[in-house]
Amino acid sequence: MEVSTIQISSSNIREVITTLINDYIRIEKNETGLAYQQLSYFKRGQINIITKLMGEEWDFEATGQCYYDFLKYLVERYELSVWKINDLFEPKSKK
To answer: What's the chain look like in SS3?
Structure first.
């Protein structure tokens, strides 16, 4: 059985990836321990799916680019409304 073709508008993709990156930043800055590990891994998986649909893929082995730099690249290239992207490069606050 063949899978149906799905069309997603570029505005919907932009909205989804923006939301996912904002969620990821919140997790990186606010979560710790097991909750951090689970939420971060899950959110990176969601981002990975959307970026593959966009024709983008993070590959540390091939590029040497850290994940934060990849996200910053996406924000800049696609002019996403992610205002706190630079927060990823600041130390995590201690609670």
So the answer is: CCCCCCCCCHHHHHHHHHHHHHHHHHHHHHCCHHHHHHHHHHHHHHHHHHHHHCCCCCCHHHHCCCHHHHHHHHHHHCCCCCCCHHHHHCCCCCC
Q: How far are the Cα atoms of 6, 14, 17, 66, 79 from residue 75, in angstroms, in the given order?
A: 25, 10, 9, 15, 5
Whether pTM > 0.90 for this model: the answer is no
The model's pLDDT over 51-74, given as tens digits with 9 standing for 90+, comes to: 999 999 999 999 899 999 999 999
The CA distance from 79 to 37, in Å, is 28
Contact call for residues 40 and 47 (beta carbons, < 8 A): no
